[in-house]
C-alpha cells in the first residue's frame, strides 16, 4: 500500500480488515519530496506516549517490505515494526548533514567554546544538554540552537513472515524525557506477500477469489483506486473512516453532519453563506 488513495481504506485484498489507527494520537497522511506521493505519518505524541498503524491480513510466506523515515531522539524514541506483537525491527535518530559548516566528521565545532572545548561529539548536538557557549546571548547554547545539522533518517526494511493470518503493527513511541529532530516517523510503500493471479483466472465469486480479481465489485473501477472495492454503488470514502460516502452521515469527518454542512466533502469548511460553491474560509 502506497497510501495513494489519500486515506487509510486498506489493501486490495479481501482478507485485510483495512488499516487501524490507535494510540495517544492517530497516524495521518503527508506529502513531500522524500515520499512517493502520500506517506503515512505518525501522530504527534508527547513523552511516554505512542501512536500505531496496524493491519490484520492473511499472507503467503515471504517478506513484508516498507520504506520508512524517522527523525527522533536516538535509541529512545523509536519507530518499531511488530508481527503478531513480536518486535521485528526498530530504528531511531537522525542522519548528520554532510554540508553543514560546523559539522567536522563525527564532531561539531562550537562557535563559542564551552566547558568541553570547541569540538564536541556530534551526538551531543540537540540532545537537551548545553555543551557549547552561547554566541548570540539568547540563553540557549550553540549546540542546542542550531539548524540543519541533522536530517531525516531513511531506510528500507524487510521482515520475513510465515504464511497465515498475521497482525502487522508499526508504532512510533517516546520515552519519558527529551525529544530530538522533528520527533516524527513516516511509512510508505508497504508490500505484503500474498498471491495474486491475473483477471479472469478465478472460477467463482467467493471471497477466496476476490484476491485474484482486480475489480472485486465489477463497477469498472479497479480496487486499487476504489475506496469501496466490494460495493459496486460506491467508490469514494472521503474521510477514510471505512464507511463509504453514501452510507456516511459525515463524509468529510469534520464533526458536522452532511445535512448541516454546506461543504460536506471538505473537512476544513462547513459554511458557504453566499452559495457560490466556495467555502467561507476560502
Q: What's the total count of β strands?
A: 15
Mean pLDDT: 81
Poorly predicted runs are 196-201, 203-212
What is the H-and-E element order? EEEEEEEEEEEEEEEH
**Individual helix count:** 1
- Write down the CATH class of the domain at 20-91 and 155-191: Mainly Beta
Write structural notes for this entry:
The chain is an all-beta fold. Among the domains are: 20-91 and 155-191, Jelly Rolls; 96-150, no CATH class. It has 1 helix and 15 strands, in the order E-E-E-E-E-E-E-E-E-E-E-E-E-E-E-H. It has one helix at residues 207-210, and strands at 20-23, 28-31, 38-41, 50-59, 62-71, 78-83, 86-92, 95-96, 103-104, 107-114, 117-121, 150-151, 153-161, 164-173, 184-191.
Topology:
Elements: E1 20-23, E2 28-31, E3 38-41, E4 50-59, E5 62-71, E6 78-83, E7 86-92, E8 95-96, E9 103-104, E10 107-114, E11 117-121, E12 150-151, E13 153-161, E14 164-173, E15 184-191, H1 207-210
Antiparallel strand pairs: 1-4, 2-3, 3-15, 4-14, 5-13, 5-15, 6-7, 6-14, 8-12, 9-10, 10-11
